[in-house]
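Lab notebook, bench 4. We co-purified these components, and the gel suggests they stay together. Before we commit to crystallization screens, I want a quick structural picture of the whole thing.
Request: model the full complex, all chains together.
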Amino acid sequence: MEIGFLGLGNMGLPMARNLLKAGHAVTVYNRTPAKAEELHRDGGARVARTPAEAAAPVAVTMLADDAAVEAVVFGENGLLAALPKGAIHVSMSTISVALSRRLASAHAAAGQRYVAAPVFGRPDAAAAGKLFVVAAGAADALATCRPVFDAVGQKTFEPGDDPAAANVVKLSGNFLIAAAIESMGEAFALARKSGIDPRQYLDILTGTLFGAPVYRNYGGMIAEERYAPPGFKLPLGLKDVRLVLAAGDAAGVPMPVASLLHDRFLAGIGRGYGDLDWSALGKIAANDSGL
Amino acid sequence: MEIGFLGLGNMGLPMARNLLKAGHAVTVYNRTPAKAEELHRDGGARVARTPAEAAAPVAVTMLADDAAVEAVVFGENGLLAALPKGAIHVSMSTISVALSRRLASAHAAAGQRYVAAPVFGRPDAAAAGKLFVVAAGAADALATCRPVFDAVGQKTFEPGDDPAAANVVKLSGNFLIAAAIESMGEAFALARKSGIDPRQYLDILTGTLFGAPVYRNYGGMIAEERYAPPGFKLPLGLKDVRLVLAAGDAAGVPMPVASLLHDRFLAGIGRGYGDLDWSALGKIAANDSGL
Amino acid sequence: MEIGFLGLGNMGLPMARNLLKAGHAVTVYNRTPAKAEELHRDGGARVARTPAEAAAPVAVTMLADDAAVEAVVFGENGLLAALPKGAIHVSMSTISVALSRRLASAHAAAGQRYVAAPVFGRPDAAAAGKLFVVAAGAADALATCRPVFDAVGQKTFEPGDDPAAANVVKLSGNFLIAAAIESMGEAFALARKSGIDPRQYLDILTGTLFGAPVYRNYGGMIAEERYAPPGFKLPLGLKDVRLVLAAGDAAGVPMPVASLLHDRFLAGIGRGYGDLDWSALGKIAANDSGL
Amino acid sequence: MEIGFLGLGNMGLPMARNLLKAGHAVTVYNRTPAKAEELHRDGGARVARTPAEAAAPVAVTMLADDAAVEAVVFGENGLLAALPKGAIHVSMSTISVALSRRLASAHAAAGQRYVAAPVFGRPDAAAAGKLFVVAAGAADALATCRPVFDAVGQKTFEPGDDPAAANVVKLSGNFLIAAAIESMGEAFALARKSGIDPRQYLDILTGTLFGAPVYRNYGGMIAEERYAPPGFKLPLGLKDVRLVLAAGDAAGVPMPVASLLHDRFLAGIGRGYGDLDWSALGKIAANDSGL
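Here is the predicted assembly.
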């Protein structure tokens, strides 16, 4: 399959590599070309010098945020103008619901198709082709894209034909992770102030009701106060909680836990934790407890 | 082993039955005697007419709340006056950290021993002997009690020699459950307002990052808006969040998510949901979203 | 003085009328022309059919929200293209800090000047020329605009040369009002549930520490549960708290009370109070208390 | 009038002095006797060595907290046992609604009368006899006490015959003050980060909508970051917000702003601000904003 792939960051690079491994003909674009060259040497990718040059029947974007996606799609030499009629833009970045709706409209107006397919998983899962993909859009477009999803993920969920649904799932999933982190931060502060060994406390939690990886991984970081090096930086957590709050606001859904998270992430930056992992919510809880 | 068992409610009755099955000589006390009589007929329990008559080398209390434990221990014909020196009071109820500390002092002053051993699990787990026990107290006392824990639970965790630590673990565990419920309530409201099928949404959550039973069970109730019959009534959730807030307050630990839960549970009662399951936090979120 | 005045809503109409009374030559623009015609017949205003026709050495905008200001300034036949070099755009609407900054840049780039001058006060204060004006911008521009401020307000505050400062003052002022309303809503619910007559409760509050009009007026509405007809609709309160949260977010300032207000206003809409006064925050507090 | 006065702290001492000045025969009790001796020398007070010795037809308590009042009333040589039938206990301390109800019952059972009469005002207002008194209880008891209230206060409010109503008014009043402080703390942080001079910002607030002393005084402390020496220490704010939350909880009233204040005060102590004025809520807001 001919695939354009735009965005070779921590997530995009291993995803593109997996597409190449699966035998697809991939044209890659990255703002700074070094990584694209690497994929050319290593994996035989064709290198595009502009987003437009990465136009293909299926063009995947995997970028940092709304602004980056807007630049690549609507900007100079952008995808929107370059994609042929009937081509599919597969947006796999974590972007706002509002931008996803705007992309859906713009591509439809241009006779193109649009699929939102954000992913759950960290760079190591991306490297292993073990991401979870949440893909929404027209059924025929989803069918066309399935080889892409199979190459990068272990499982694909399809919540319907409205692309924005996939973004809601992704953002609300990240919200649930952050809520679990914050709750654990408070619980660990209480445990520590009560003289309980945090590692043992974690063992009890994960050995009883909270066996999910989210509790195990982030609980481990909080128990050991191991907030650096960051796997996902605190300001990225702020970004995502902003997006879920915006989605809630637009849909008329008050989300008080998300509001609380927003203020905690902001306070984390104010206190100088901007370079730590987003699990440093646990550090805020500890500090406020005099730990 | 000779065991006194006080409190034959939804949890206590199956627990006492498992102790009898394991071959222990159990004397049971219940405020209303019918259930005690039942255990006498069924299982050969001796029936005590007062708490004092249930005094034994190991006396287990499994009661509804602080007031019930205080009545049975400190009240007329209470355990405290009746227990022999060296006997162990095993408090398995979900009670406040403050009362647990008070019990520890009172029993020590009377030459008795005290173990706090609250449990995780619902009545069905109690019936199956599959509870998780969190037991804290002096090492020798814990060793003596182990056959009790083995008869009622699948696993015992021992967070140390300060009995209050076990209560902190139990209360903070319930807090984490409630926090997960509230967060899911908000997320499901957003999903529903975004046109996503809630059952499919649940499948995605539990199929990716949130496979733990807490998410599966409570998520299912929220997805299906199945808040009755209650497994654990909303006012009991309020009671437990009060206890964790009190523990946090006493330990100097601000717990903003717990504060939010407190206000949501209170509002749930104000809106008439007092007979629903505590997962009806999801109903509050839905109502506030116009669903 | 030659003045363009754009926006003849509840606030703009009496303000424009006061400018006419003060002897200024006013050209008025309104999206729906009926009110402009009225000011022509009544007060001798010149009527503009497009925003551009209202261009003048001093052009005042007094519109509903960011979108309306953007349309009038940046849209077809907009002010930006029509204002002569050196002319001053005086933005008196309650708009976002971000839009105010964008206007400042755009006008500067066009060789024009920009003053932000939002006001405190309701339509009756506007009619009486008793608004409070908060004006920020370059000193010479402010000096030129003073006759405008004197005609519409009882007092002008000038927090500096950065126009956005005036918007921050306005938005944070509205936030403080909303915070006082919410706090009173909670306090009145407690008073009522404690058997205290709410009118007497209000007398005590305003007779001791809370004599300010904000407490008197909104307290009166809450005490009497008089939420209709609305003076300032609940969704407008939501709009303004969104703007203050956006300002806080951009400035790195967590505002937990504002976050709480945001969720309460949203919930108010979800519960069907969208046509009530924003003091209906008191109705939410009452309902959640079972009143 | 013969008056017993128990508690000669920052508030009680000037209040007792004013009673002496008004010509009443006052017997004073204080746990540490030095201040009582002072009032004996200065003002002719009779000195009681135990609470019982201060029993009189009207006995006023003005103590630090629930524990102090309980000790003086229910403890050894306490007021309850010593007061003659028909005597009135006037509780002017800031105590819990629950304790006030318990005092009402206990005094009624002993054939005595009980009036709750907490006050608004700081030590300087107490010295000037300018307190506001909120007095509730049986009409005849209130009538008897009026000379006491007139001697210490500028005005007395009487919200009814249920003594607890007076405590609700006092506690909710302090809650409203704390809510105004917190809101201002957030608003000032935003103003400062937006480059606005905080003193000028305060002038605008108090010159427009927020002329009440609460805004002027606490706003001034926040604007100048003048949190020491404390007028009312942060842990006392925590104490009072705990009491209002307890009152709300018992009455079924969720108070989310009070919950937020509780967590902020706790965090203030955790961050080491326990010796600062409770307006140091503004310091928390500033720190979380990176100021």
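Residues 7 and 186 of chain D are 37 Å apart (CA to CA). Worth comparing against the SEC data before the next meeting. The mean pLDDT of chain D is 97.
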